[in-house]
Amino acid sequence: MRKPRQEMIAETRSKLIAAGRRAFGTIGYAEASMDDFTGEAGLTRGALYHHFGDKRGLLQAVIMEIDAEMTERLNEVSAVAPTRWQGFVDECSAYIEMALEPEIQRIMFRDGPAVLGDISQWQNTPGCIAALSRSLDRLKADGEIIDIDTETAARLINGASSHMALWIANAENPEAVSKRAVAGFKAMLGSLRRQQ
Amino acid sequence: MRKPRQEMIAETRSKLIAAGRRAFGTIGYAEASMDDFTGEAGLTRGALYHHFGDKRGLLQAVIMEIDAEMTERLNEVSAVAPTRWQGFVDECSAYIEMALEPEIQRIMFRDGPAVLGDISQWQNTPGCIAALSRSLDRLKADGEIIDIDTETAARLINGASSHMALWIANAENPEAVSKRAVAGFKAMLGSLRRQQ
DNA sequence: GATAATGCATACGCCCCGTATGTCAATGAA
DNA sequence: TTCATTGACATACGGGGCGTATGCATTATC
Description:
Oligomer: homodimer
CATH superfamily of the largest domain in chain A: Tetracycline Repressor, domain 2
Distance between the termini of chain A: 66 Å
Keywords (chains A, B): DNA-binding
Mean pLDDT of chain A: 89
Protein name (chains A, B): TetR family transcriptional regulator
Pfam families (chains A, B): TetR_C_41, TetR_N
Domain HTH tetR-type (chains A, B): 10-70
Radius of gyration of chain A: 19 Å
Strand content of chain A: under 5%
InterPro entries (chains A, B): Homeodomain-like_sf (IPR009057), HTH-type_TetR-like_transc_reg (IPR050109), HTH_TetR (IPR001647), Rv0078-like_C (IPR049484)
């Protein structure tokens, strides 16, 4: 036991985040009992209150973790695209696909905003919106898209994507709806492109 | 006292809906104690459970009431517009403005979806989306907009609008953000119009 | 090595919810 | 009219989750 303490503390924090994330992502924030999921992590509510203040504080930490992962994924997608425009479209598609994942949908698009208010303007705009914004900035500098405020456009796309994802995920036949949704979404994206 | 009973019952129902609506719209669904707001209406939780099954049932009733009001308002807006395109743009603007009202924002865009899941595909799509959809159908028939699935477009606009509203409402300086948001939103709408 | 401080668990009380039960008025049939 | 039944609503009870206060052990500080 050479380097405990700091390490043990970090471990406790990450255990709590992982346990909360699993509970929030499956049964949802409101149904998740702090006693239950801290117990599953081998801890108690005492540790949670100590590290995160309350249940909302833990949700915030969970969201920041997921947001970082989403940002990373978006950056990877745009990095491998042959053109910037293609990279942007790929990014948007990836965003919708992520929004279809139950954990992300539940935490980032349902419970998160409901419990914490508008997540998207915490710090200095979270990563995944900033990523879209940056892509739009580059496209605008290249003269590839119409004249539009890029942060606004990023938020429009963000809002549209998440609603598309909700629509698809809750549809009776998700595949059919997905086709319609993605086609319509790409049509909207295409209309942002400068006709050339 | 000639026609009580049915009338008293309806009155109880509407009292509960009004009380719940006020509580949900101000302090929010999760914070609203059923004992409190039924008490303010001169009733008890017994009446609520009898009429609506549970707290979620009441929320559902509240949402249906608000949705009907929103639909009515959208129809009025588009009815008085000089052209169909203008009517559509006005409808979208009205939609954003409604989404800025605290009660609507809280109940329809925050707590509603979080508690009940995707509201927009309950029955046969609620009124306010159907209203947008109808406007788009007419525009498409007139050849005024690009070829796009109208329900998808309505949902895209719906999602974009509500996120714009959230962005504005939670911004540090709502007026400035509102200008950017509305300008960007109209640019997006304009890009849906067939260039003529 | 004594003391302070930190990480975390335990203990307590409150409030809120769901259900089971009770009550009373209105209705309908004899 | 009377009486039984149903429905509208209140009351009563129990459980569970949350927040806070408190306790305890281990580590940092001197």
